[in-house]
Amino acid sequence: MQVSENSHDDFLFIDDSDEEETPECSETKTWQVLIVDDDPEIHSVTQLALSDLIVLGRRLEYFHAYSGQDACQIINDNPDIVLVLLDVVMETDDLWVKSCEIHT
User: What's the pTM value of the predicted model, to 2 decimals?
Assistant: First the structure.
C-alpha cells in the first residue's frame, strides 16, 4: 500500500451546494407548526431543536397547545397550520381527535 506524501491529496471535496436549487429564506412567509403536549419542557426542546430549520425557503412559526381542547381551538383559528407534532400519550384521556370539529 502506497501512502501519499501530501495528506490533503487523499481527500476529495465536492461542493454539492447548488445556489439555484436553494431557495432564499423568506422573512415574511413561514410554515405554521402546532406542538401539542402536556409537558412544557417538550415544547421548549422541540422548538429549540427546530429553531434553525428552513424548509423550502421558509422558517417555522410555532403554536403551542397543552391539551386536546386547546389544540382544537388553535387549529380552528389558524387554518394555515401545515404540521401538528402530537403527543399521543398525554397524561389525561383526552379524546380530542374524535370530538374536534375543524372548520375549513
Answer: 0.67
